Amino acid sequence: MDPWEGRTGECTLEQLETDPDNFRPKTAPFDPRFPTTNQTRNCWINYVDYHKCLRVRQDDEDGQRVCSYFKRIYTSLCPSAWVEQWDELMAEKRFAWVEGERDRLREAKEGGH
Fold first, then answer.
1. How wide is the angle at C-alpha 33 spanned by C-alphas 28 and 37, nearest 5°?
2. Which residue has the higher pLDDT, 68 or 7?
3. What is the pTM of this model?
4. Domain-embedded: residue 91
5. 37, 44, 60, 73: least surrounded by Cβ within 10 Å?
6. Please, are residues 20 and 65 in contact by the beta-carbon 8 Å criterion?
7. How much is the mean pLDDT over the chain?
8. Do residues 23 and 16 make contact, with C-beta atoms less than 8 angstroms apart?
9. How far apart are CA 41 and CA 71, in angstroms?
10. What are the distances in angstroms from CA 13 to CA 17, 76, 92, 107?
């Protein structure tokens, strides 16, 4: 018996937060922010959104489960080599998006003039 039988795969944000396992895309769903066929930016945005979600929900016991929506999408869209490289950069706090890093870099640049 298929546990997904009868489920459409579509849900509201509220449903996603309460039961993210109810939504299981076979591939990333259509996102109107990325209407063209090149999904590179969609891949990157969902990777970043996953990590932002983890930071926001780090004290929430369901945080990992709720944030898994973004992870499922970026793992569907992104080449694994990119994800491995980004994970290394995240661990070293050198990824293009690390909370607070943009301000630190701006201050360093302004101080260097």
1. 60
2. 68
3. 0.58
4. yes
5. 37
6. yes
7. 75
8. yes
9. 15
10. 6, 20, 32, 37
Domain extent, residue 54, equals: 13-17+37-111
How far is Cα 30 from Cα 76, in angstroms, rounded to an integer? 13
Q: Which of 62, 59, 49 is nearest to 99 (CA)?
A: 49
Q: What is the CATH number of the domain that holds 100?
A: 1.10.10.140
Query: Looking at the predicted structure, is the pLDDT value of residue 74 above 70?
Result: yes
Residue 98: which residues within 8 A CB-CB, separation 6 or more?
A: 90
Residue 42 within any structural domain of the chain: yes
Residue 82 lies in a domain: yes
Q: Which amino acid appears at position 91 of this protein?
A: A
